[in-house]
Amino acid sequence: MFCLVSFADFSLRLTKLVLCRFFWVTDLYVPREDGRADNVFICESLDATSHFETATADIMAVYERVTGNKLDLVVSAEPKDLSSDQ
Description:
Layout: H1 4-15, H2 52-67
């Protein structure tokens, strides 16, 4: 099994100067079911490496499970596609 702490220690020794080191492991939780059977839709938990792209992908997956449709975020700015009620 790959040991991230050992790898980080080796890498940090190469840099010679480390003023402060922060390192911890956080559990990542994922839902057991997809939510369709009981209508309980749960997102995955986020960790320190999570960022907008992964969080957005999770939300889009939940949206698709809830509605049955992919979320379309493509917006046309063409005048013919714009209506007065938007």
